[in-house]
Design a protein that fits this description.
Layout (H helix, E strand, L loop, with lengths): L10 E6 L5 H14 L4 E6 L19 H11 L3 E3 L3 H4 L19 H4 L3 H16 L3 E5 L3 H13 L5 E5 L19 H33 L4 H10 L3 H15 L5 H15 L6 E9 L13 E11 L2 E11 L49
Parallel strand pairs: 1-2, 1-4, 2-3, 4-5
Antiparallel strand pairs: 6-7, 7-8
Helix pairs in contact: 1-2, 5-6, 7-9, 7-10, 8-9
Length: 369
């Protein structure tokens, strides 16, 4: 890696555990767009044993290096760094590790004790080994992105951490290497994760529309509801009552989002096969603690569940409280470029820059290992 020519441009790294898919490709394209044709994009492929707990899928985690190299090249990467476990941990499991702190004990950290310590330890090693100027991570793993960003800031890593919006299948399912484990019936059940998040987003959008109508009416919405009911205009009265209810209620309360998502997940728990919920949480992006019902600002609605033997996670960003005219709540893909977790404007490129040299099995790094 140290001998790989940099040609004066910025170096970006995209860290993966292999089994690459379109979600990973979107990260590579974002990196290529950011550094341009003069820069360099390195993809790492390493299945890190430190972040797998007892009973998790380390042994069956898919390993498809040849296909990974092809996909990375097509997306615009210059090199793939695929070290062995023995190269990354030459003396066995390291005695000195990086602790994720309080944020690493919540949600994913509570479900998978020690997981984020393993993540940060290998990320720190790979940042040292690849020496990038910029590192790109997906927003699907929102808590991982948050702890990596915090580590880089707290420990003064000379690297910019950039978050890239979640890539999804056409049916809404977040792209994941673990999706290949799902049978067709399990996949249908798994769609409840994204459906729950979309339901919360849509409910907030509807509440916002009702409140805007209440603000624009020339007289109290409740009076309008009563007047319409007296005229026998029941449907119009019901609509006016909904506007009045929105006007009187809390401003975009987090309880509304939680309830909408929970209803979808509860229904999925009765499917065959059922969805087994691990957690549904609405959290502050800065520390991943649950937000109160009075919260205003940006939050992350995160969900984790098992379908069959496969554990899946997903999240979206939502904004609570007044929003500027003409803006809407964050969509399911988290499609903004500037976020509290360090995403930079323009981070989500969709095409590779021209002039990118291809990867071959005997490219700049020699044969991928």
């Amino acid at each position: 890696m140290r001998d790989l020519p940099r040609h004066g441009g910025a170096r970006a790294v995209v860290m993966t555990m292999g089994a690459l898919h379109e979600g990973h490709a979107s990260l590579v394209r974002a990196a290529r767009r950011r550094v341009g044709p003069a820069g360099q994009v390195v993809v790492t492929v390493f299945v890190n044993p430190l972040q797998f707990g007892a009973g998790e899928d380390l042994d069956r985690y898919p390993r498809t290096l040849d296909a990974d190299v092809e996909l990375a090249a097509a997306a615009g990467a210059d090199a793939v760094f695929a070290p062995s476990v023995e190269e990354v941990y030459p003396g066995g499991e390291p005695q000195v590790r990086i602790a994720a702190g309080p944020m690493g004990t919540l949600l994913e950290g509570a479900s998978r004790p020690g997981h984020f310590d393993g993540v940060l330890t290998v990320v720190a090693k790979l940042l040292h080994l690849t020496a990038p100027d910029i590192a790109f991570y997906g927003q699907k793993d929102a808590q991982q992105l948050a702890v990596i960003t915090r580590m880089a800031g707290d420990l003064n890593f000379p690297v910019e951490i950039v978050g890239v919006p979640t890539a999804r299948e056409e049916d809404g399912l977040a792209l994941s290497s673990r999706n290949r484990y799902l049978s067709l019936p399990e996949r249908r059940t798994a769609l409840a994760l994204s459906a729950a998040l979309f339901a919360a987003r849509d409910r907030l959008t509807a509440e916002e529309a009702l409140r805007a109508r209440a603000a624009s009416t020339g007289h109290p919405a409740q009076d309008r509801s009563a007047a319409l009911a007296a005229l026998g205009e029941d449907r119009a009265a019901a609509d006016a009552h909904a506007v009045a209810y929105a006007a009187a209620g809390p401003l975009h309360g987090p309880s509304v989002a939680r309830a909408a998502a929970r209803a979808v997940l509860d229904e999925a728990a009765r499917l065959d096969p059922p969805l087994v919920l691990d957690y549904l949480a609405l959290v502050d992006p800065s520390d991943f603690t649950e937000v109160p019902d009075s919260y205003a600002g940006e939050a992350i609605l995160a969900v984790a569940a098992r379908v069959g033997t496969t554990r899946l996670i997903d999240n979206i960003r939502l904004t609570f409280g007044p929003t500027p005219t003409g803006t809407a709540h964050q969509g399911a893909a988290g499609a903004t470029g500037s976020t509290k977790d360090g995403a930079a404007p323009g981070a989500s490129g969709t095409t590779a820059a021209p002039g990118t040299p291809p990867i071959t099995p005997h490219g700049p790094l020699g044969a991928p290992r």
